[in-house]
């Protein structure tokens, strides 16, 4: 098995430059990593309903991007999905990349097997190291990029940035897979061991005694790529929230309690409790998940809400339990903007609507507006760069048809003629963009267009 993984890793490394060149159009069928007949039917039917030729082309290319280009190993027991131009599996990205395909799993058994295999891989990854965010294809291999980081690097780990959302995305995907397929075979002893590990880690990162076993240091010229205080980060006062050393952007947190991730944890824990009660009959474990969710939810009400003169009560992006709060938003999901999409927060909740107005204004220091477009960015790429992901989430969290259409028009106009989404584009020049191969943004754009077409009736 080890030889097989090593061979696959070599093949993956060899094919990555080729894949990166395939972005003038969708890869030919013989060059696609995985083909789902159900997804292909959806593409054909959706494009037939789109009167805009460019939007149809972009949907045709973007929606299957994950299946076309990033599935490097697939099966009911093991699936490996890379992010695109980085040949590693992120727990966050991979779970988000396949999420829009869940609706097709009942009619496409091979697609269901692919998602089930990804869950199995994610569970095993968490058991390798619940503090890692990204993993190698070969579970025995050492990181080719970050072996020198000042943290406990283990075989199989690509990068060890502790992000609370990395523990939440597999739980969300597990629940979505179960609801979409009715399949209970994925929820065996491996699943239960994973849930216990996640729970233990979350409890540990509530930092009841003010400490954490996790530290992270990196020699870098970017302050957001490491942690302060010799790798321990900013101090946190225990308050019921769960700490996260890094954001969904893989940038370091400034204050330890990352509010969007804590909202996602509440939702993911409750989804997990439902599976544990219905499928596993693990009442005590389910009660532990529900209890932690309730504790974090109460702490969010007490510590995450900040009153502002202009917007009223809004959610902070990060807090520390001492009363300090960081008011901003980042494009990556989970974000404050994305709370209804990722954490089940009601769209019409007053504090969310106040927060939405704030993060979509220039009072958010990472909201950029220029000649090419407007949207939220973040320190990961730098000032002046808008992330298409934020524009997509703006549309997905809107009930205003004019706003949704404007978001789609902006996304069409900022693809730099490629027909694909990118990580970010400059606010004044969409041809100045980062990451030509970013499958998560592509698939998320496809999800938006599909929802838009379904709501046209």
Annotation keywords:
single chain; 457 residues; mainly alpha; Glycosyltransferase; 16 helices; 15 strands; globular; disordered N terminus
SSE map:
Blueprint lengths: L1 H19 L16 H13 L3 H10 L2 H5 L1 E3 L6 E2 L7 E2 H8 L10 H20 L5 E2 L21 E3 L4 H18 L7 H16 L23 H4 L25 E2 H22 L2 H21 L1 E4 L3 E4 L2 E2 L5 E2 L12 H5 L6 H10 L7 E3 L4 E3 L8 E2 L1 H9 L4 H13 L10 E3 L2 E6 L4 H16 L3
Antiparallel strand pairs: 1-2, 3-4, 4-5, 6-9, 7-8, 9-10, 11-12, 13-14, 14-15
Describe the structure.
It is a single chain. Strands 3-4-5 form a 3-stranded antiparallel sheet. A 3-stranded antiparallel sheet has the order 6-9-10. The chain is globular. Among the domains are: about 200 residues, Glycosyltransferase; about 90 residues. It contains 16 helices and 15 strands. The chain is mainly alpha-helical and about 450 residues long. The relative contact order is 0.11.
